[in-house]
Structure formats: C-alpha cells, structure tokens
Amino acid sequence: MLMEREMVIFDLDGTLYDLPVDWAGLKGEFNVMIDDELYVEGGYIMSAYRYADGRGDLKGRMLDLQAGYELARIDESRRVEPGIACAEWRLKRGSRCSIFSMNTERAVDRLVGGCGFHPVVTIDKVKMPKPSPEGLIRLIDMIGMTADDVLFVGNSDRDAGSAAGAGIDYIDVSVIDQEWFK
After folding, report:
1. Nearest by Cα to 10 from 130, 133, 129, 171
2. How far apart are the C-alpha atoms of 77 and 14, rounded to whole Å?
3. Residues 132-167, buried b or exposed e (16+ Cβ, 10 A)?
4. Whole-prediction pTM
5. What is the rounded distance in angstroms from the CA atom of residue 38 to the CA atom of residue 21?
6. Residue 49, pLDDT above cutoff 90
7. Is the pLDDT at 77 greater than 60, yes or no?
8. How does DSSP classify residue 174?
9. Which of 47, 58, 148, 150 could staple 52 via S-S, CB 3.0–4.6 A?
10. CATH 3.40.50.1000 domain residues, the chain
C-alpha cells in the first residue's frame, strides 16, 4: 500500500519528526490570548483554532505564537525513522509525497523544505484543523487525484479522523517496518 499509491501524504510531528515543543506552554498562552469564558481553560490547541475562526486577526496572532514555540528548539527535533524511511524510499524513486500538518508552515519549511514534498498544507492554510478532513480534501483537489490514489500516514486519532472524513486510507506510522524499504 505504501509503495503502490500514486501519492502518500504524511503528517509531520510524530510521523516524520518529533518536535520538542512546549505544547503545554503554548496552550497556556493561547488561553491568555483568548481570555473568553466560552473557551474552556486547558482546552486543546486545535479547539483554540476552531474558536479563533472568524474572530479578526486572532488566528494570525496564534499562528505567530505557535511558530515561535515550534522554531525555538526545532534543531533538536528527532527523526521518526519508519516515517522517514518510507518518505525517503518514495522520494528517491520519484514517487509523489505530500504533507498535511497542523504545524505551522514555518516549522514544516524548516524541517523538510526543499526535500521534494509537494504540495504542503499546514495549519496556516486551513479554516478548520484536524480531525476536519478539509486539509486532505484540499490536497487531493490540488493534485488532481481521487481518494483511491492517495494514502495518509500519521500518528494520532486526529490524523485517522481526517483520513476517514476525506474517504482516504490511513496507516499509523507505528506499524511501518523500516525493513520494507531496504
């Protein structure tokens, strides 16, 4: 399945790289930034983005803050070897690879910019974050393929939910064996 699909779409954080981001700190700063009784204290980062939809420049300020957190220690990111092995194997053979990530475009560019992933859709480019299928549907439309032509590789229930909503097959990176690509 990983080798035969015309396009494999990868998540970034937890699938290709583990980013050392202080997500709890970011969540806390989002709570201060939002400062609204409708937002539940300690809520998830993705729910904060849902809340920000249609509220002026709030999403832009949140993206800037998230990018700062992601870039602060990005040089300490560690490769997720099964995901990297699959991507490198496909890219070396000219097979198409793409990224759909809830990380910022700045972080994705810093880690994989120029490596051959195209197109890339990040949190910056979607109205609703995962598990919404919006980003995957947009990618499928951008590449002119059908859901049957692509596979999404991720590492979370949100990733699986996005794939299910978009009607595409999903595989968790934890089941990939690096030996498949040797």
Report:
1. 171
2. 10
3. bbbbbbbbbeebebebeebbbbbbbebbbbbbeebe
4. 0.92
5. 26
6. no
7. yes
8. G
9. 58
10. 7-18+78-181
